[in-house]
Amino acid sequence: MKERTIRALLFDFDGTLTKAGLIDFAGIRSAIGCPPGASILAHLERIADPKERERAERRLGDFELAAAERAEEQPGAAELVRFARSRALKLGVITRNSRESVDRSFSRLKGLAASDFDVIVTRDDAPAPKPSPEGVLHACAVLGVPPAEVMVVGDYRYDIEAGRSAGAVTVLLGGAQEPGRSPVEVEADHRIGALSELIGIIEGIPPPGASTRPSPARRSPSRRDARRSY
């Protein structure tokens, strides 16, 4: 893939900036009557009775807040954020979670804070949630960066589908199946097993304004390829 200039990173939250497996997806589906493999948020939208839907939304919120109380940083997340800032990259979060649960999680994290990010898009905001590209496009507009110069990083197919539909570069972290979730079977521009690998990928991408032509005085350095084959 021909490398593009990258000016911003958009991260999924749970399972990407935080460790995976904290949210009990199977428990949520059981509590709100959502069929296995179906989108939880789409199921909520289909509940016609307002009171029933409100109860289901509260149950979802309870599960999310319980998970937020146990939130831990994904290994390498703080280092990656510091590195991105050293490269003058803009940073954002785009998640299907509520803002309350995201803020609760940040209060538990030691090396990351909400203030590290230039934009945070949750399901409480206007854009349709992932896999719709609306949230990515909204974040790009807030950051003032075109989607083609944004890298969307996530651990699930919704993250990759949203990024690809918006025209962004996509990075799939891990890709292992979690209980209650469908297998990750998508084509991402990059696949990584750890966030630290993304540093090598970014180092190999010309920074904004840099010439991509090799110097006539010496051969241009080779690009570090941090991609893994799966």
Report on this model:
With 230 residues, this protein is α/β, with parallel strands linked by helices. Residues 176-181 and 211-230 have low confidence and may be disordered. The longest helix has 19 residues, at 50-68. The chain has helices at residues 13-17, 25-32, 40-46, 50-68, 77-86, 99-108, 134-143, 157-166, 196-203; strands spanning 8-11, 90-94, 119-121, 150-154, 169-173, 190-192. The chain starts with 7 loop residues before the first strand and ends in a 27-residue tail after the last helix. The protein has nine helices and six strands, in the order E-H-H-H-H-H-E-H-E-H-E-H-E-E-H. Helix 2 packs antiparallel against helix 4 and helix 4 packs parallel to helix 6. It has two domains: 8-20 and 73-203, HAD superfamily/HAD-like (Rossmann fold); 25-68, no CATH class. It has a six-stranded parallel β-sheet with strand order 3-2-1-4-5-6, sandwiched between helices. It is globular.
Q: Which key phrases capture this entry?
A:
disordered C terminus; 230 residues; Rossmann fold; 6-stranded parallel beta sheet
List the helices and strands and how they pair.
Layout (H helix, E strand, L loop, with lengths): L7 E4 L1 H5 L7 H8 L7 H7 L3 H19 L8 H10 L3 E5 L4 H10 L10 E3 L12 H10 L6 E5 L2 H10 L2 E5 L16 E3 L3 H8 L27
Helix pairs in contact: 2-4, 4-6
Question: Would you kindly provide a brief summary of this structure?
Answer:
This protein is α/β, with parallel strands linked by helices and about 230 residues long. Helices cover about 40% and strands about 10% of the residues. α4 runs parallel beside α6 (about 100-110).
